[in-house]
């Protein structure tokens, strides 16, 4: 079964896949590797604004 990378749409099986599941997600989301995961997070943070604001301390 081919799983597309959330970020670049490649088949993750051809790389070193990373699977993540956010709270509220029904399904795991697949990424080729940590590079695609990090890039996706960067883009998501840019488009959604302050979602990565962690409380200090
Ligand atoms: Zn990818």
Which features does this protein show?
alpha+beta; 2 strands; 26% helix; binds zinc ion
Give a short synopsis of this structure.
By secondary structure, this protein is α+β, with helices and mostly antiparallel strands. Helices cover 26% and strands 11% of the residues. A two-stranded antiparallel sheet has the order 1-2.
What does this structure look like?
- This protein has 57 residues and is of the alpha+beta class.
- The protein has one domain.
- The protein has one helix at residues 34-48; strands spanning 18-20, 29-31.
- A two-stranded antiparallel ribbon has the order 1-2.
- The longest helix has 15 residues, at 34-48.
- The N and C termini lie far apart (43 Å).
- The model has no long low-confidence stretch (mean pLDDT 83).
- Bound molecules: zinc ion.
- Zinc ion binds at residues 5, 7-8, 10, 31-32, 36.
Bound molecules: zinc ion
- Overall, the morphology is globular
Number of strands: 2
Mean pLDDT: 83
Radius of gyration (Å): 13 Å
The biggest sheet, with number of strands, parallel, antiparallel or mixed sense and barrel status, is: 2 strands, antiparallel
Output the helix-strand order. Answer: EEH
For the record, the count of structural domains works out to: 1
Q: How many DSSP H or I helices?
A: 1
Poorly predicted parts: none
Helix content: 25-40%
Query: What's the arrangement of strands in the largest beta sheet?
Result: 1-2
């Amino acid at each position: 079964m081919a799983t597309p990378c959330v970020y670049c749409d490649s088949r993750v099986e051809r790389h070193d896949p990373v699977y993540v599941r956010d709270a509220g997600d029904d399904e795991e989301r697949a990424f080729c590797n940590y590079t695609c995961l990090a890039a996706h997070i960067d883009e998501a943070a840019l488009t959604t604004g302050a979602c990565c604001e962690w409380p200090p301390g």
